[in-house]
Amino acid sequence: MDAAESATSPPVSPPADDAEAVAFPSGLPGFPGARRFLLRSLATADGAFAELVSLEDPGLRLPLVCRPADGEIPAEDDLDEACRALGFDRERVRVYFVVTLEPEAARAWVNLRAPVLVDPAAGRGAQVVLADPRYPLRFPLPSRGRRPAA
Predict the structure, then answer these.
(1) Residue 62: is it exposed, middle or buried by C-beta count within 10 angstroms (0-12/13-18/19+)?
(2) Distance in angstroms (rounded) separating the CA atoms of residues 133 and 28
């Protein structure tokens, strides 16, 4: 993102409750017109889930799962490179993955290829598409208490 793009991004309203206002100056893949969101933590036992709610279209809600602090996917090198390209401070960035829910099948999938990076201090975010094919687009979300095999 360049300075002109940053200057043309509309300001994000202050968040309500525990939500954080986040601007996505380049939009999100598949939703290019949605650029302003609230990031809300969801009340779950493990606190691992959140959602992005579009301020332009409140019906647009993306469920997210937080990357565990000890997470190995994506690799730190890939995250460092993505943060450098975006001008994000890697030390402040939180990493999320978009969740696709299949309620009728009681399944959920996580997109590991395109993490959502959020710099809460700057109020900016971006979804990056990683080139490495070892990151699947549809990875089954493990049941509680189970972790993916390394």
Answers:
(1) buried
(2) 20
Distance of CA 56 to the CA centre of its chain: 18
pTM of the model: 0.78
Q: How do residues 103-148 score in pLDDT, each as one tens digit? A: 776 788 899 999 999 998 899 999 999 988 888 888 888 765 444 4
Task: Look up residue 95 and give its two tokens.
Answer: 């990493």
Confirm if 60 and 31 have CB atoms less than 8 A apart. yes
Domains, the chain, ranges and CATH?
3-140 (2.30.290.10)
Average pLDDT, the chain: 79
Number of H helices, E strands in the chain: 2, 9
